[in-house]
Write a structure and sequence with these properties.
single chain; Tachylectin-2, Chain A; GH43_arabinanases; glycosidase; arabinan endo-1,5-alpha-L-arabinosidase activity; Family 43 glycosylhydrolase; Glyco_hydro_beta-prop_sf
Length: 318
Amino acid sequence: MTRAALASLLGLACALLLWQPTASAAYPPPGLVTGDIGIHDPSMVRTDQGYVVYGSNDLLEARISPDRTAFTDAGSAFTGPLDWWGEISPDRNPWAPDVSFHNGRYYLYYAVSNFGQNNSAIGLATSDTGLPGSWTDQGMVHRTTAANDYNAIDPSLLVDDDGRWWLSFGSWWTGIKVVEIDPATGKQFPGDTALHPVASADGGIEGPALVKHDGFYYLFNSYGTCCAGTDSTYRIRVGRASSPTGPFLDANGVDLRNGGGTFVLESHGRWIGPGGQSVLSDVDGDLLVYHYYDGEDNGAPKLGVNLLDWSSGWPVAY
């Protein structure tokens, strides 16, 4: 290892130590992040150039960081709106990105919709670098209309240990669904219309994040209402299953399709309405990445990041 590479690793290690949040009696505060951290529905990936976070609106706004602590505004994923978005949403404003790296390529799933409607679609873009402005759109993956009883937004990709790909998504209506994805295209297999219902709840559910850990599949969801500043009621709950299509049960054995869900994070102190979450496996463990509304900063939306402790068999933020 070169001296420069060693220095870089030591610098990252020091930054991660500084990043660690302090403990609290109930839920922890977010880990230390600084700079341009205003964002909704964040999804983070580690690239050769450092960390990149994408969020809703502004053509999927981007933040970059060399050390996962200091973030700067890096523009947006896309350089301009796409024509096909206008078929779904007149303002052509994409939401809720999900970014990940597989088989030497970066994948960015995202949603196009109108707030409160289920005339929606999930799109896919790919990139060799994962950096803002580098994405090539691959078109539509899944669509819903007012004739459907579910909503095609808030995508989250899981690549299984055996190479099978699964996409979870959904918002309100009849809740969260899972479909299988063709790894060759990043879209559904031709003719495969199987739609697996995995979670629902009165009072709102959306923003799934599907991950696998120690032989179990874990489904994180945001419950309640988003995007209302300090009046937001988002909270993050989770269930687990032995299959990516469920059934997902909480720690008390309640099915997530029947309103179950073990709490991972909810409003505490100045950190209001945490949700819009994703999970990133990083060098020091798995990260819960989410937004919250800052009760001490006029309800401004901000990036939250915490490590997850899995020792109990359930994810615990710390």
